[in-house]
Amino acid sequence: MKTLLNKYAFCLFMLAFMLPLNMQSQCDWPVVTATEGVNFVNPIQPMPPLITRPDYHLIVDEALHNFDPNTPNSPLNRFVPTFAFNEIGNQFMTILGPTISWQFGSTIEAKVTNELIRETTTHWHGAHVPVKWDGGPHQRIYPGTTWEPTFEVKDKSATMWYHPHAMDLTYSQVQMGLSGMIYVEDPVGVDPVLSRIHDMIPHTYGVDDFPLIVQTKQFRRNPLGNVEIYENFGYDSDYMHLINGTMNPYIEVPQNLVRFRVLNGDGKYSFDLGIVDKDTTYTGFQFIATDAGYTDKSYAMDKVLMAPGERTEWLVDFRNYNVGDTLFLYNKVEDMVSGIIGRRDVSMRLLKIVVVPNALVPTSPLTFPVDLHPSEAPPLSEVDNTRLKTFRKDPFNFNPPLTNCNRQGVIESVSRRNTFNIDSTLMNMMVVNDVVNLGDTEVWTINNTTTIAHPWHIHDIHFWVTELVITRDTTIKDTMMVDGRDTVIMRTEFLRRDTVTWDDVPDSLAYMFKGPKDNVLVQKNWQVSYITTFDDYGTSIAPQNSYMYHCHILPHEDRGMMGQFVVWDGTVNTEELALTEQQMKVYPNPSDGLLYLEGSSREESLVRVLDIQGRVLREALLAPFEGAVPLNLEGLSSGVVFIQWMTNEGRATRKVILD
């Protein structure tokens, strides 16, 4: 939590230098750029503080952060308003959040207090937790309140992260700085395979085991001349690269075997990451883990394509380098295929890596590849159900209209636009899109029919990719064609005993499917299938009991490219809450067509008009409100109708007579 002095200083800054300008007012502010990828003068050490207790208390708060403190003439060498997670009694952070350590089998008793002026959530991305503690859009933390999740850690050995997930606010709050890493530690003494891996590879936080959070931000100068983070949607090239919230960063690593845990924590960009020397020659690393755990063995790689939300783990051997040698984390954008959203203007060095003397016990020699963790994918013979989810771009009406900043810096208001979506449906907090039976093993196929690559993320479970189908338009006459399209099917080795050649994708992409995942990039013309089991945390069917699935390009998610599912335990909720008469009023009654609904809802709600036979005559979504909102019943036949109002707190029905 901020000290009183820090809080007072922030308030003085805001009063002296800031105007109450909203996000849309940033539209025509001039972009602020700074030199990057050349002078690496800002250390990213010390690492974010490590929380090892299961009873931590996070504060979501405003802060001021200097992104480029050691570059004298940089326009970003100044305090910029940000958001940060801070733990009570720990090191004060001005961006991102502490790294949280979880132990398998332990009970987490966390608290998250929201000190912002807007609601937020805290989602444990990748964690297998009860739906009420998932931190999705239904678990909002309102200003000045505290959320207190309690759950058992059922995951083993994984790199996860936490970030906001409030409806329509995720991108803005992540851009402002809210993200942090979760280390699910190896369960030594519990799992013999994971115990062996733990003893074999680096695991000392901040010494030979480093979290690297890769992000971009755009900065603009407001009318008072102060620099702010640009929170609006957009995909321009003027975004600065950051590692752990630092621009022009460097890190010192021991002359030893080192582990990097890499998170693409960006809101929209993919990165093609590798390690190069001063001549931009790849030096290679051993790829050892995907989102949710270790791969089956280590894989030698030069670089790896990472979409927003994905995590990977690398072993890098610095024992063959001299003290003082420098290498670089490099983003090679030229290798990204069409449709992948990334900063396409120039490949760039993102982080300088400096080799320093080793103060650790030298790592025992390893002969690569090394065996890691065998796949735990369920067999296809146990599949109970299959599902197809399709990425589309369809026209939708928006009321109220969407507001956008165009490339000319002008605010546009759009009431109808083509929007990325899943199954031609936009996210509705009151609608359960899928019901999964508790205990079922399912295969989900994600079909991308758009021209853009979208990272698919699903809450609650981990999955194993079973099949990749790539469909290509082609005009090559000597290629076998079926209805003008050439289809290639590839399956991963653990589901087929014969050798599979991934002729259409590089090894670096194939290796991303060699471990458990919760986040996968589905490129254009791809169908990705995966298998998983929904083995616990069943509930009754209700919107508030839903987990999310969505595109992890956050502007797409915020605009509705998301759905929700319930893991159903077979029970029916017989204790449905009812709103009391004082909580819902409708007037005038009788009505001539204009009706008012009086009540209060802190979240989006649904109102329906039913006839006496229960048929839906009209329905509408209501934004959060307190007081009275008008309902237009004009055009309906005279007689008796019923007004049904459904919120997360329950539902109520009132009879109305139409004149």
In short:
With 659 residues, the chain is mainly beta. Among the domains are: 189 residues, Immunoglobulin-like, CATH 2.60.40.420; 74 residues, Immunoglobulin-like. The protein contains 5 helices and 44 strands.
Task: Report the mean per-residue pLDDT as an integer.
Answer: 88
> What percent of residues are in strands?
35-45%
Q: Would you tell me which CATH topology of one domain applies?
A: Immunoglobulin-like
* Rg on CA atoms, Å: 26 Å
* Major sheet: arrangement of strands: 2-18-26-25-20-23
The CATH architecture classification of one domain is Sandwich
Assign the CATH class of one domain: Mainly Beta
State the fourth-level CATH superfamily of one domain.
Cupredoxins -  blue copper proteins
Give the N-terminus to C-terminus distance in angstroms.
Answer: 58 Å
Count every helix, treating DSSP H or I runs of 4 or more residues as helices. 5
Main sheet attributes: strand count, strand direction, barrel closure? 6 strands, mixed
Structural class: mainly beta
Question: Percent of residues in helical segments?
Answer: under 10%
Q: Shape from CA axes?
A: globular
Residue stretches low in confidence (pLDDT < 50, at least 5 long) are 1-24, 474-481, 491-502
Secondary structure: number of strands: 44
